[in-house]
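User: Hi! I'm working on a homework problem where we have to compare a predicted structure to a textbook description. Could you give me the structure for the chain below?
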Amino acid sequence: MSLATECPVSGSTNLKPVFTLGNVPVICNQLWPDADAAREAPAGDVDLVICPETAMIWNAAFEPERMVYAPGYENALHFSPKFQAFAEELAKGLVDRFDLKGKHVFEIGCGDGHMLDLMSKHGAATATGFDPSMEGKETPFTARDGVEIVPEYFRSDQLDRPFDAILCRHVLEHLDAPMPLLHDIRRAIGDRDVPVYFEVPNAGWMLRAVSMWDVIYEHVGYWTAASMEAAFRRAGFAPVSVTEGYDGQFLMLEARPTAPDPSWLSPDTTRVIADAEAFATAANGLLAGWRDRLSRLDGKAVIWGAGSKGITFANALGDAAAPLAALVDLNPRKHGLYAPGVALPVVAPDDLKTIQPDLVLISNALYEQEISDQVRGMGLNPEFAVVAG
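Assistant: Happy to help. Predicted structure tokens:
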């Protein structure tokens, strides 16, 4: 039996269905150079299931061999002032809580090195990241002395250099087999007291907020607090804290090494299963409502946010997406490219002056105020509606 039909944490085959979404882009955050290429982007199905023992949710239809990242992949969030503030506070807090001034930090899946730069800014002596997507790319975030990106997949044998903390942010949700990574890190730490920090999209928030737009193919795993704690305790880590951050949308775990507890289960699984059952019913009704609203729109609409939420939403609309003129994003690296599947162009905020939209759909409620202020500052007065959050 494939890993997709076994719980990634416990290996159990006792599954319960949660939610299905068909014909979604395989790589949601990979933008394309023209509309024809975007329409032909690979698509796949999502079939979410839950393990009643661990409260782990994952895509049973996931095919890992289809995950081929190519030029055009872009998921950086730090162009938003709100996210910048969150990241700044996180980095300072980690340096303080983990006592990392003058010490060495590793980050697995570091992207363009934004967090590495912040850790260095707040006192880390060296900050080393691993990310194969940075092969051949330039980034301003390695300008500080001691900040380095190794453009490779992380391997446990790379932990042969000094390290005093390990960070891993928004990586676990991409792994169909996350436990080997946790076991490798635990073995490399050995008998040292090295803290770890892991951050993932919060599936608990996704279920409660009915944010079906967070269901994307490239996320095979949807982590709840219960499943996070089960995975880490089984791998030999004692969570110091498992908290919700970024207005609940992120799940943030801080832990220290301990003896593995290979059969540990959370007492909170029943609540998560109930949330998953309610999510399925509500999500289907929500999608029908959005399709009806867009079908009746007399005018043009845009989606602000050319990330996973906005692109998933646009594709899920089907024929009701006809009024959509573009996706808007602050990230200049996305401008002039096209979203997979729906093939909408990604434009800069200033382009709204030409588009003159009647409706601006905000893909994430966290940015509602900054977006509405910016749009009205252009002299535009469209209707606003929040898609998620």
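For your comparison, note the following. Residues 32 and 247 are 31 Å apart (CA to CA). The mean pLDDT is 92. Good luck with the assignment!
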